[in-house]
Amino acid sequence: MPTSASTVPVVLVLAGHDPTNGAGIGADQEAIRSGGGWALSVATALTVQDSSNVSAVYDVAPDYLRAAALTATADIRPQAIKIGLLTSKASAQAVVALLDEFPSVPIVVDPVLKAGGGKALTDDDLAAEVRASLLPRATVVTPNRSELARLVPEQPNDEQRALTLCSEGSAVLITGTDPLPEEAPSDDAVVHRLYQRGQTVREWRWPRLQGSYHGSGCTLAARIALELSLGQSLAEACERAQRYTWRSLEHAQQLGEGQYLPDRWYGNSSQGREGNE
After folding, report:
1. If both were cysteines, with which of 27, 89, 186, 275 could 215 make a disulfide (CB 3.0 to 4.6 Å apart)?
2. Where are the alpha helices (DSSP H) in 124-194?
């Protein structure tokens, strides 16, 4: 028997397209669908990339972003929104204007500023625009430490950077997978920290997996959005999404010559959410 639409959580995804499906919209769709949700997907950019790095990025017209998102959501209403790669101020402004249509929907922003292989995907002006206009609208933003440093360059450390963004409106989940350029990587653990205004900092430690992974940030942010669409608290959504992402990375596959691609269907039964428990 078909499933009633009212029982399927829907997440609107605004993100770049990665032909490998390691990251971007393909990763988001898998992370959401494997957890029993449904992704409405609007491409914000088209990339030319393999499992090693991005070689080119093509902008998508802001008018398309708005029209595609409004048409899909007029028919199928989302319970959460996940935003990834933005490549121009005009696109960022179009997304911000779109959010006015969803005043009470939780919003997860994964501020993709460079590719896993190191190629910069945004300039400082766009990063400043994202911080000024988009992040204050977010429920939570999920930067790695390098992204956080670019977003809040005036502060000297992770904690003060996170607290600054909290004061501007958004909770912050700092992902500790990648060290800052001047630091040596930790061999034993990855530490994620959640900062919320007026609340105690939450910290999670996960065993560090060997290898380099493509799309871990997309996977985490999309799964947080799914959990929020199901009514989980932010801290619980972050914990569940981290567990799911770690398992996906644990079973990742190196299909090409570059980074490992997460297996986002590992451990998920036909009932949808078993692998996240």
Report:
1. 27
2. 124-129, 145-151, 158-168
